[in-house]
Design goal:
Strand content: 5-15%
Radius of gyration: 17 Å
Oligomer: single chain
Number of helices: 10
Strand order of the largest sheet: 1-7-6-5-2-3-4
Order of helices and strands: EEHHHHHEHEHHEHEEH
Largest sheet: 7 strands, mixed
Number of strands: 7
């Protein structure tokens, strides 16, 4: 745990989903390979499936931006079909017990809720995907609100978090996430940022600007214990 700031106890915590609460690759990678099989069958794509590391490196981005990187020469129709297929295949994959949360996520969230912290999710993912994970993994009831770019049509996570803060009249929150977009969303909205470095999807500079960086989700409880 890299502690670079004295923290104030928050009234709320806002969590990213992929790479923070949910081990995305356990659901994403099987769906990713099936997706390209279907795209080839339907004539939307030719050639080998792009390296899965390319897709993992895009986690946290909006889907429309992901396909510009993963399928740069694809048509708009191919990109939109990829949107549909990824959601369909991932929702189907949630029935597979191999698609899991990070260790101690549920227990830590339950303890934070018991301590009176208001819990939220803010994700750049699609609405049914983000809520589907929370529902399938038994953590939906722990959150006061689950916000997604897919539901609210926000252009950035900064906008999504601002909307969440405004709608729930939150002044002091910890933004908890693993990507630079999470750091930006927290800082641009004047909130504390807890960077998560256990997913391993981003480079060394990914969490630059975080107030604290943690290496396991359960460290949030220690941070909360020692916050003023």
């Amino acid at each position: 745990m890299e502690n670079t700031a004295t923290l104030i106890k928050p009234e709320a915590m806002i969590f990213d989903m992929d790479g923070t609460l949910f081990q995305t690759e356990t659901l994403l990678l099987p769906a990713y390979h099936k997706l390209f099989d279907v795209l080839r069958e339907e004539g939307h794509y030719e050639g080998e499936t792009p390296d899965e590391e390319l897709m993992l490196g895009c986690l946290g981005m909006l889907l429309e931006d992901i396909w510009k990187i993963v399928i740069p020469n694809g048509t708009q129709a191919a990109h939109r079909r990829a949107d549909e297929l990824l959601l369909q295949l991932e929702l189907e994959g949630l029935n597979n017990e191999a698609a899991v949360l990070y260790p101690e996520v549920k227990e830590t969230l339950e303890e934070l809720q018991r301590r009176g912290v208001r819990l939220f999710v803010a994700s750049n993912g699609l609405e049914h995907y983000v809520k589907g994970i929370a529902e399938a993994r038994g953590i939906m009831s722990l959150f006061e609100g689950i916000y997604s770019a897919g539901e609210h049509g926000t252009a950035s996570k900064v906008d999504l978090v601002r909307l969440l803060l405004d709608e729930h009249d939150i002044r002091d929150a910890w933004m908890v996430g693993d990507r630079s977009s999470d750091v930006e969303a927290g800082k641009e909205n004047g909130q504390t940022v807890i960077g998560c470095r256990y997913a391993g999807f981003g480079g060394e500079q990914e969490l630059k600007g975080s107030d604290v960086v943690i290496h396991s989700f359960s460290h949030l409880l220690k941070l909360h214990d020692h916050a003023e």
